[in-house]
Amino acid sequence: MQFIDRIILKKKLEKRFKGIKIKYTKNRFECDIEKQIVYLPKERNPKSDFYFWTWYEKYYNTRIDETELFLLSMLHEIGHIMTWTEELEEERDEQFGLLQVLHELSNLTTRQLNNQYFEIPMELQATEWAKNYFEKNFKKPLTNQNEYAII
Questions:
Q1: CA distance 11 to 13
Q2: Which of 30, 57, 82, 142 is most buried, by CB atoms within 10 Å?
Q3: Tens digit of pLDDT for each residue in 58-69?
Q4: Would you say residue 71 has pLDDT above 60?
């Protein structure tokens, strides 16, 4: 993604999601729910992309391309802010802690850990929100399959 694209994306997202700020990090998608900040990567992280990409395609029985992966990952972080409840966060923290212990004490692979993490209710709810928002609000132009228009 070119520098100008990041500026345009930031402005469009902040206009669309009032109160949410967009900032950039080196290579991860993240969010700070309390401060309502979504962090988008300046660079791709192939390992993180791979885990979410393969889980998403299997879980939803669909195929997505790299652009869709980026948009869904971005919307997933926004989805955390849009769907947050204290109960969900407490449950995620407990379940993730348990997954980390299982990973350290057993043969649970990093891929298995990530697959389980994506299905923790708070994570799954943010992904569901992202998927629904994407399907209702993004349209793939016929002219260039790597560009999406927000409709």
A1: 6
A2: 82
A3: 999 999 998 899
A4: yes
Instruction: Determine the structural domain holding residue 74 and report its residue range.
Output: 3-140
Structural domain tally of the chain?
1
Is the pLDDT confidence value at 142 over 70? Answer: no
H helical segments located in the chain: 3-16, 46-60, 66-83, 86-105, 110-118, 121-137
Q: Is the pLDDT of residue 99 over 50?
A: yes
Q: Is residue 59 part of a domain?
A: yes
Residue 72 lies in a domain: yes
Whether 128 has a pLDDT exceeding 60, the answer reads yes
CA distance 74 to 68: 10
| Whole-number Å distance between alpha carbons of 75 and 3 | 20
Is 145 a member of any domain?
Answer: no
Total residues belonging to the chain: 151
Q: Would you tell me how many other CB atoms lie within 10 Å of the CB of residue 5? A: 10
Neighbours of 126 (CB within 10 A): 25
Asked whether 149 and 139 are in contact (CB, 8 A), the reply is: yes
**145 phi/psi in degrees, rounded to 5:** -70, -5
